[in-house]
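Continuing the series of single-chain predictions for the mutant panel. This is the parent chain; the variants come on the following pages.
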Amino acid sequence: MKSQSQFHEPRSTTVFRHTAEAIRNSSHTDASLAQVIADQYMRDVAPGERILTFHVGTDMDSMDKAHKANAQIVARIRNGTVKMPADLEESWVRALPQPWSDNCARELANRYGFIGARMPKLSPQAGVLCVGRISVEYGQTIEALANVLADGRVCVQDVPELRTAREELAQMRAAMETLAAYVDGHLYMFDPSIGAPPAGVLQ
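Parent structure:
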């Protein structure tokens, strides 16, 4: 007996889900975020390599028209009229406000079996940010779990908080992996005998 195929949502659907959540919960509107996506795409992709043609204005009137045209391009992609080009995904995810950008990137990485940890720079400031990020994620994880356990039992009503706790745990785990790569990178600088430096650590 053949087992039924296990289908996963398309990557674009994952991106659109985080996009909708960002618009609902941030100061962005559909139009304002569409322009940020367009700007990010034009910064990331060389003109000769672009599949999409976003618009740029030179004065107030043409800029207004360009923004409306860009919003229409993004809207057509979101509603499925046009398929998301592969070279737009990275720019789109980077354009999302935090924490939705990191959450989306982490979920996309998880599809390949990676935990979505960010590679650190080997600067003192980067180390401070790593430690601070872990502290924030730890506090948010404990808060979510405390809400679940407040009444001394776990039931179906706790599912929203359990989902939050899972998300916070994933973010904390990724932050800890980033800090571990930061520590390993410095160790390798002073003691190469520990082995190859972590791939992708930025000097």
